[in-house]
Specification:
Layout lengths: L20 H4 L55 H18 L50 H4 L23 E3 L6 E3 L5 E8 L3 E8 L2 E9 L9 E10 L4 E5 L6 E4 L23 H4 L5 E8 L8 E3 L3 E3 L3 E5 L5 E2 L6 H14 L5 E5 L8 H24 L4 E4 L4 H8 L5 E6 L2 H14 L7 E3 L7 H4 L3 H6 L4 E3 L5 E6 L3 E7 L9 H23 L3 E6 L6 H14 L7 E6 L4 E6 L6 H5 L15 H16 L8 E5 L1 H10 L1 H10 L4 E5 L5
Helix pairs in contact: 7-8, 11-12, 14-15
Length: about 675
């Protein structure tokens, strides 16, 4: 799930909590959002300042030059469309405020020629432009004539969309309920939705979609409950001076890994002068085995590796991250508006947290009132007080703070203003989320909806089953027909891009660019879905054009901006390889719901049946030559191998037994693969 360190202040240095040694050296990008689009200006803003005097056409060959007929002023003032847009926007805003459907102004009769149009009136339709016969021009409009599209008044359908209110509730049938009175307004749907599937007491699944495509997927099972974010009271089991790290016994199956740079100075025992150029003292000089420490899990244990822990604690809230041991205050770097950043910094100054406590404003704090921010701070402050009291009474190793379950964490961390609906298939869980939505989005009481159908699942209703199942597939198909192949090793993850049928040398460059661009977008999405961390190597289709290379690199970086994890991307090498380092946020859905194959041991391959049968025949041949060989000789093998040998090696087995007058019997052992 979301790491509380994701929302970090701009001036906060990155903590070396990386996936691998290479991942630790990766610099965290700024995660800056795309700049907002410029506001639309009127089609003919400049035209209204130009004189409306009549123009004369030059004399033409054949004596047909003549003065053009003067046109009315309103016919050449295309800024009326802009005026109408402003009036319609005002009417629509008033309709939203009053929770009533927008009422479009009726078009009055056309004004007399030469008179100015009435305020709020529909501008007259522009007559069709005559074809110009000016010399040297073959287009359908004369030189200096305003563009026909600019003269054409804007219709109701072409009006610019009013910015969506983030607290409005969005519906499926095109209308939204804004007030208990039942008045409706036109529904401008948001793009994101959240789906939560719950098996009470056993399983929680969370899916985030955008335009119907799955963007994020999280799973949590009760017997594999995640420990990331939990705070434990543990003790130092042993210290490795070579690694400059301590192994912490906090009650888990494997000890946690604590590096020297994650040890708060308050745990140092005695004083030790730093060597020249060193940032930290030697761990074996300032810590001792058996010493109690308070640690928080930063990264889940994976494989044979224990959890990565830190003594710098943090408590994530809705609007703040409450940090202990770091009294640095700041605003998330994802908040780019300077005025808003200054306002939030002023709120932190007014809160004035105690010494040793830091506050980081999360992106959810944008536009929130001081009272809401203060309420969140007081909750986190009380929570830390409760944790301190529990630490004094518990004996190490012990759990002193447990993170919320997945469904509640999803509402806290992922439910933002651009999420239109939250669908839940469990009534009790839906009620918990409604209580949270009532506080975070008071104007959207009907955001949370319950899936009560028994004929089909929540995933089937919204077409999510196939997309979720694809997460576990080794191959992913691209829209152009290409394929992505993901292979995981101990050191890195490789992604190979295989193109579809590319015909002709002339179209190879274009097809390679198209396939690589699609692959870059899909790879960024799959990295989020599968939560792949560490070193990632992508093998692109060969491209020789430098512009194409830069375009694919730009597409990849742009697609990774929406990733919650920190990433670092290199350029495409001369060999067509791109290196990427990504932070793993937690245990992925693949890691918690899969296990190594018992036949191949996780390698993905095994010896074929012919080879296995021959190895069994060698064993039988050796046993038959023993002087005390039992009769009959029973040989246990797996069911699949037994069927193969009885169908293909029966005569050879009979012949081998007849030589020594011993009967050979193939027995099925269900325990064998």
């Amino acid at each position: 799930m979301t790491d509380s360190h994701d929302d970090r202040p701009t001036d906060q240095t990155d903590s070396p909590q990386a996936e691998t040694a290479s991942a630790q050296s990766a610099t965290a990008p700024d995660f800056q959002a795309e700049a907002q689009a410029d506001s639309e200006s009127g089609a003919g803003t400049d035209a209204q300042d130009k004189p409306t005097a009549a123009k004369r056409s030059r004399g033409r060959r054949g004596g047909r030059g003549r003065r053009r007929k003067d046109k009315p002023a309103e016919d050449i003032a295309p800024d009326d469309a802009t005026q109408q847009e402003a009036e319609l926007d005002a009417v629509y805003d008033a309709a939203l405020t009053e929770a009533a459907p927008p009422v479009m102004p009726a078009a009055p009769a056309a004004p007399a020629e030469g008179s100015a149009p009435a305020e709020g009136a529909e501008p007259p339709q522009e007559p069709k432009a005559k074809r110009s016969r000016s010399r040297g021009r073959r287009s359908g409009k004369s030189k200096g004539q305003p563009d026909a599209a600019a003269q054409e008044p804007a219709s109701a359908e072409s009006q610019p969309a009013t910015p969506a209110d983030p607290d409005l509730e969005y519906c499926e049938d095109g209308a939204e309920e804004l007030a208990p009175g039942g008045k409706t307004a036109e529904c401008k749907k948001k793009r994101k939705k959240m789906f939560i599937g719950v098996l009470p007491g056993e399983l929680v699944e969370v899916v985030l979609t955008e335009d119907g495509a799955v963007q994020e997927y999280y799973v949590e099972m009760l017997h594999q409950a995640k420990s990331k974010g939990n705070i434990y009271k543990g003790y130092i089991h042993n210290i490795d001076s070579a690694l400059q790290a301590a192994f912490i016994n906090y009650g888990a199956e494997r000890n946690g890994f604590l590096q020297i740079d994650e040890v708060h100075p308050e745990y140092y025992q005695g004083s030790y002068p730093l060597k020249k150029g060193a940032r930290f003292p030697l761990m074996q000089k300032v810590l001792r085995s058996g010493q109690e420490v308070l640690v928080q899990v930063v990264k889940e244990p994976t494989g044979k590796k224990g959890a990565f822990v830190t003594s710098y604690l943090s408590l994530p809230g809705r609007y703040f991250v409450y940090t202990l041991g770091r009294d640095q205050q700041g605003v998330s770097r994802k908040i780019e508006d300077e005025k808003e950043r200054e306002r939030l910094k002023g709120v932190i100054d007014q809160i004035c947290p105690p010494e040793g406590v830091g506050l980081i404003v999360r992106t959810a704090g944008i536009g929130r009132a001081k009272t809401e921010l203060m309420r969140d701070y007081k909750y986190l402050h009380r929570l830390w007080g409760d944790i301190r009291k529990k630490v004094q009474t518990e004996k190490a190793p012990a759990l002193v703070y447990k993170e919320m379950e997945l469904s509640v964490r999803a509402a806290r961390d992922y439910l933002t203003a651009d999420v239109s609906e939250v669908w839940v298939d469990d009534p009790d869980t839906a009620e918990q989320i409604r209580e949270y939505v009532a506080l975070a989005f008071p104007k959207s009481p009907n955001m949370v909806k319950v899936h009560a159908e028994s004929e089909r699942t929540l995933w089937e209703r919204f077409g999510l089953t196939k997309q979720v199942e694809q997460i576990y597939s080794r191959e992913v198909t691209l829209p152009s027909g290409g394929r992505l192949v993901f292979d995981h090793t101990e050191a890195l993850t490789s992604v190979d891009i295989n193109s579809g049928k590319i015909g002709g040398e002339q179209s190879f460059a274009k097809m390679a660019l198209k396939t690589n661009t699609e692959a870059a977008q899909e790879i960024a999405r799959q990295l989020r879905l599968r939560d792949i961390g560490g070193q990632i190597v992508i093998d692109y289709i060969e491209m020789k054009d430098g512009k194409h290379l830069r375009e694919v690199e730009k597409t990849m970086r742009q697609a990774l901006k929406s990733d919650r994890a920190r990433t670092d991307v290199s350029g495409i090498s001369p060999f067509g390889l791109m290196e990427l380092v990504r932070q793993r946020l937690g245990s992925s859905a693949i890691s918690v719901s899969t296990e190594p194959c018992p036949c191949c041991g996780g390698t993905g391959i095994r010896r074929n049946l012919e080879w296995q049968a021959l190895q069994a025949m060698k064993t039988i041949h050796r046993l038959l030559r023993r002087p005390n060989c039992p009769n009959p000789l029973q040989v246990p093998v797996g069911q699949e191998l037994a069927i193969y040998m009885l169908n293909n090696k029966r005569e050879l087995l009979t012949e081998m037994g007849a030589r020594v007058d011993i009967r050979v019997e193939i027995m099925v052992d269900a325990k064998l693969p």
